[in-house]
Design a protein that fits this description.
Layout (H helix, E strand, L loop, with lengths): L1 H9 L6 E7 L14 H9 L5 E6 L10 H4 L3 E4 L2 E4 L7 E2 L2 E2 L4 E7 L9 E5 L4 E5 L10 H30 L3 H7 L6 H9 L11
Antiparallel strand pairs: 1-7, 2-7, 3-4, 5-6, 8-9
Helix pairs in contact: 2-4
Length: 207
């Protein structure tokens, strides 16, 4: 692979590539069922990296060629914990972590600046010109993307762990606080109407 990349550099060109991240040891249950799925949070973080063009989890696009019986990760019990015989979903169930390895693959675009002549437009004069850049560049962005992608995923997982810690703390609050936040029998619409037509209270000394 290194020889191929060096050959690309000699040609004055650059190349894209693919990288894979495997996150081991993430606890099960991180993320929310809908708006803040861990899968969505990780996707948001990774796709904020400019050089990434696509990403997939677990079996990825191969899932489109599979049957349900092939795709389903069947559970079993090991050491008192639920495990899965396969990991087609890439460590998620319903967008939340399931305790298995989180497997992510990403496609990285080639470095745009190359030494080969290419068409461009001078935005000052709006004239078509030819650009043959002579400058320093990375032959491939993949070596630089690795630590950036790892940091982004780590931040997303840490954020999910903080959220889980907050939910756990709230669940342990005294019962009186649960009563304050419990749903009321009156609907929000009825409450709004009641407040809108409520008579103002008379305060002593007011006019």
């Amino acid at each position: 692979m290194i020889a191929d990349i060096l050959h690309v550099r000699e040609e004055g060109d650059t190349c894209g590539g693919a990288i894979e991240l495997v996150i081991r040891g993430a606890p099960a249950g991180l993320g929310e069922p809908v708006f803040d799925k861990l899968k969505a949070t990780i996707s948001h973080a990774l796709m904020s990296i400019g050089a990434l063009t696509s990403m997939e989890f677990g079996a990825g696009k191969k899932a489109s060629e599979m049957l349900g019986s092939q795709w389903n990760d069947q559970p079993f019990v090991e050491g008192g914990k639920v495990r899965f015989r396969t990991n087609n979903c890439g460590g998620f169930l319903g967008g939340m972590s399931n305790g298995e390895d989180i497997v992510i693959r990403m496609a990285v675009k080639p470095t745009p600046t190359i030494s080969k002549p290419q068409d461009t437009v001078d935005m000052v004069t709006l004239q078509e010109k030819t650009l043959e850049a002579i400058t320093r560049r990375d032959i491939s962005l993949c070596p630089r993307i690795y630590p950036v992608a790892e940091a982004m995923v780590a931040a997303a997982i840490l954020d999910a762990m903080y959220m889980a810690k907050g939910y756990e703390y709230f669940a342990r609050l005294p019962e009186k606080w649960h009563e304050q936040t419990a749903p009321k029998a009156v609907s929000p619409h009825d409450e709004i109407i009641e407040r809108a037509f409520r008579k103002p209270e008379v305060v002593a000394g007011s006019r």
